[in-house]
Amino acid sequence: MKYLDQIDVSGKRVFVRVDFNVPMDKSSGQVKDDTRVKASLTTINYIREKGARVIVASHLGRPKGKKVEEFSLKPVAPVFSSLLKKDVPFIDDCIGEKVLEAVAAMKAGDVILLENLRFYPGEDKNDDAFAQELAKLCDVYINDAFAVSHRAAASNTAITKFVPICAAGFLLKNEIEYFNRAMGNPARPLAAIIGGAKVSDKIKVLENVIDKVDRLVVGGGMAFTFLKAQGYNVGKSLCETDMLDLARTILDKAKAKNVQFLLPTDAVIAQNAAADAEVKIVDIKNIPDDWMGLDIGPATIAAFSEAVKSAKTIVWNGPLGMFELAPFSSGTFKLVDAAVDSGALTIVGGGDTDTAIHKTGKSDRISYISTGGGAFLELLEGKTLPAVAALG
Ligand code: AMP
């Protein structure tokens, strides 16, 4: 696979697949958060500076192959223009005569933004005919949309068959390089922090990371399935009884591989998941029947922090408690402190983990926060992402 800085784009027509799937304010129709647009600027400016023409394309939401006004990328164009400090014309289609004419009229360094790729059913179907239409627009194809690279689509997979020069942009490069540094040949000890709601969502992650890590720190709702599998009463805590055997298998595998498997030893419990609920801190052996564990307790925070602080590499997906509610947020927030204090290479991925870290105001002290929740999880599962493989 080639990266953008390894190919010659000078004077060329360059199609850049970005992820401008930004949150929109439904009532005003305006962009609520421009983080994803900002994240594309390094790649786009680099291409512009080479005197190339930049054709930018993305999806937004799930219009399911039809033109749906609420999913138009039009409101993104002014945001993009002001961040780029250059007028970016919006073209209200992504293939066909109108777009070809707009591209033909572009000058060196110009940028245009196309309409939502998902207005055509061929996009999600990874359809060759649609990809060929996109390919007609350009001489070079750049993928910089890591967040959708786990789903094969015409604009990230099929298109690579029809454009002679294809490469990864700088955002995708960063994602791949950081992930490989953490999980490929990491500085050890390597610790994985896996949290979140359910074991069933993260089984493949657990099965894959257990082969690679020295320490596995498990918190959040999913910890209770492991605790139940070890014979503890978990009360009303989240627990997947159909996963108990699998949980035991994973625990056995950790033992066989000498992986340190850390589970909570105490918990913050409540009778209901509410910000004003009465809370108690109990030993994990003492969760009453009608109470539930919603965060890790102080003894667990201390043990988890110790395991994290002495690691050289940390990979983290999933919060350690219901951090959205203040009484159950300490575990996650304190582990952010531990990760920051460790000085370890720390890679974080997953929407909720990202949100939690931003809430602490310490996101700039984390080595890398992935821009793709689902794609990051699939990397953690040990999968090859189709859109990345297509660049190979
Ligand atoms: P996930 O998307 O699987 O990473 O799960 C994230 C969600 O798990 C967050 O919304 C948390 O509130 C929730 N969560 C974390 N710990 C617990 C817990 N102990 N009980 C219930 N939900 C939890």
Note the topology.
Elements: E1 13-17, H1 35-39, H2 41-49, E2 53-57, H3 76-84, E3 90-91, H4 97-104, E4 111-114, H5 121-124, H6 128-135, E5 140-143, E6 165-168, H7 170-183, E7 190-194, H8 199-209, E8 215-218, H9 223-229, H10 244-256, E9 260-262, E10 266-270, E11 279-283, E12 292-296, H11 298-309, E13 313-317, H12 330-342, E14 345-348, H13 351-360, E15 368-369, H14 373-380, H15 386-389
Parallel strand pairs: 1-2, 1-5, 2-4, 3-4, 5-6, 7-8, 7-13, 8-9, 13-14, 14-15
Antiparallel strand pairs: 10-11, 10-12
Helix pairs in contact: 9-10, 11-12
Bound molecules: adenosine monophosphate.
What does this structure look like?
This protein has 392 residues and is α/β, with parallel strands linked by helices. It contains 15 helices and 15 strands. A 6-stranded parallel sheet has the order 3-4-2-1-5-6. Strands 9-8-7-13-14-15 form a 6-stranded parallel sheet, sandwiched between helices. The chain has a 3-stranded antiparallel sheet with strand order 11-10-12. Helix 12 (330-342) links the parallel strand 13 (313-317) and strand 14 (345-348). It is elongated and about 70 Å long. The mean pLDDT is 97. The structure holds adenosine monophosphate. The site of adenosine monophosphate has 16 residues, from strand 12. Adenosine monophosphate (AMP) binds at residues 196-198, 201, 220-221, 238, 293-294, 318-319, 321-322, 324, 350, 352.
